[in-house]
Specification:
By secondary structure, the protein is an alpha+beta fold. Helices cover about 20% and strands about 35% of the residues. The strands form six sheets. It has a nine-stranded antiparallel β-sheet. A seven-stranded antiparallel β-sheet has the order 12-11-10-23-22-21-20. The chain has a two-stranded antiparallel sheet with strand order 4-5.
Length: about 400
């Protein structure tokens, strides 16, 4: 066990079941409006946290404007900010591919490309009351050195939680990017002179991974289950990239963090593709992405939901199914009420209902649809305050 003290914070690092647990309780920077600014990175100007760099959100993440850094975020309750700076509400109850790309691996002088980096970032969520908040992320990275064709693999998983101002991070890792392999203690890899590891900003309660020679920087702050929307330090995940270092944006048909405008697709384009609202289109991308659902505390229904959706998303009836069934996940009042009626595996209950709804409407199975309708009605979780569900019907 290691305990580190400073004037403003306590950092406690424990070794626990082949993973490290890190506790942080920093106060961050100055109070500004409803939030606190990042210490040493931002200042309060007219009740708004402004980054010293002039680039980013001073109460969540600041970015380097001198190296053309682009970024995507998933934050607050939660909202996705794409690499094109479009914003969309996210209702992702399971594990999803956030971004996937190839970047160049820079030489030590920072001017030559001597290899490549394949980067995948997955997010996973958990339910707090009626919403699905970010629980953590996985970074899967492979670095290839062109001269010798040597390759180094590393995976880093960070889970987070917070309660009454104390932030807890559980970090694990492995020396491969095999989805099926087991996670163990954090890996500290030196890939051709580039150290890859996590460090913690105890003042701002952030877990940070900075792989400078790949042009990648990730930071993560968990959601405080006590403070909720009143959390003064905004929770979420930020993925920043040096744009000139990006060689190729990959998996553009399924990633949640859409690439920059000049690469596409845009939020409007995927909405047109599915012919539904942006938040429903993002949900459809999560379903089509079919990410492996191996994450801590994963509801068993996550895997079943992916299987159900794989057939539904290719049918003409998917528009109707998405529009009607998505409300079962997107209405916090309904989610909270419905899951509160199930003491065990509560998240599974609403995911199973959503999956049953998709299956019934995509395949136009009237008896199954009527069963879903009856379950919604008999839950007594629907009234005039949730009009999206009061009109649920099975008239195909």
């Amino acid at each position: 066990m290691k305990i580190l003290f400073s004037l403003t914070l306590i950092v406690l690092v424990l070794d626990y079941n082949e993973a490290d647990i890190i506790y942080l309780n920093g106060e961050s920077g100055v109070a500004c409006g409803e939030h606190r600014c990042l210490k040493d990175q931002a200042e309060c100007v007219h009740q708004k946290c402004v980054c010293f760099s002039g680039h980013g959100n001073g109460n969540f993440a600041c970015y380097n404007s001198s190296n053309d850094e682009v970024y995507a975020e998933i934050k607050n309750d939660p909202i996705i900010v794409t690499f094109a700076h479009e914003r969309v509400a996210a209702h992702m109850p399971c594990r999803a591919l956030f971004t996937h790309l190839h970047s160049y691996f820079q030489g030590t002088d920072g001017t030559q490309h001597i290899g490549s980096c394949e980067i995948k970032v997955f997010t996973f969520a958990f339910k707090i009351r009626g919403k699905f908040y970010l629980q953590g992320f996985d970074l899967l990275m492979s670095i290839m050195l062109w001269e010798t064709w040597q390759k180094k693999d590393i995976s880093i998983r960070i889970e987070g939680s917070a309660k009454d101002g104390t932030f807890t991070f559980l970090e694990s890792g492995k020396d491969n990017v095999d989805v099926a392999s087991d996670w163990g203690p954090p890996e500290k890899v030196n890939a051709f002179g580039q150290k890859i590891r996590t460090y913690y900003d105890g003042d701002n309660n952030l877990a940070i991974i900075d792989v400078a020679r790949c042009g990648l920087r990730i930071q993560f702050r968990p959601t405080d289950v006590d403070h909720g929307k009143d959390q003064t330090q905004i929770p979420g995940l930020s993925v920043a990239l040096v744009q000139n270092n990006v060689a190729q944006w990959l998996s553009r048909n399924i990633v949640l963090a859409l690439p920059p405008f000049h690469i596409g697709p845009t939020l409007g384009e995927i909405s047109n593709q599915f012919n539904v609202a942006p938040s429903e289109a993002i949900l459809a991308r999560f379903l089509e992405g079919a990410a492996d659902q191996n994450f801590p505390g994963a509801p068993s229904q996550c895997g079943h939901l992916i299987t159900t959706a794989s057939d539904c998303m290719v049918r003409e009836s998917r528009k109707e199914a998405l529009e009607l069934c998505s409300s079962l996940l997107m209405l916090p009042k309904f989610v909270r009420c419905f899951t509160n009626k199930t003491l065990e595996h509560e998240t599974d209950s609403v995911l199973e209902l959503f999956g049953a709804c998709l299956n019934a409407l995509c395949h136009r199975i009237t008896p199954e649809c009527l069963l879903v309708q009856d379950r919604i009605t008999s839950s007594h979780c629907v009234d005039d305050t949730v009009p999206e569900l009061t009109g649920f019907n099975c008239q195909f």
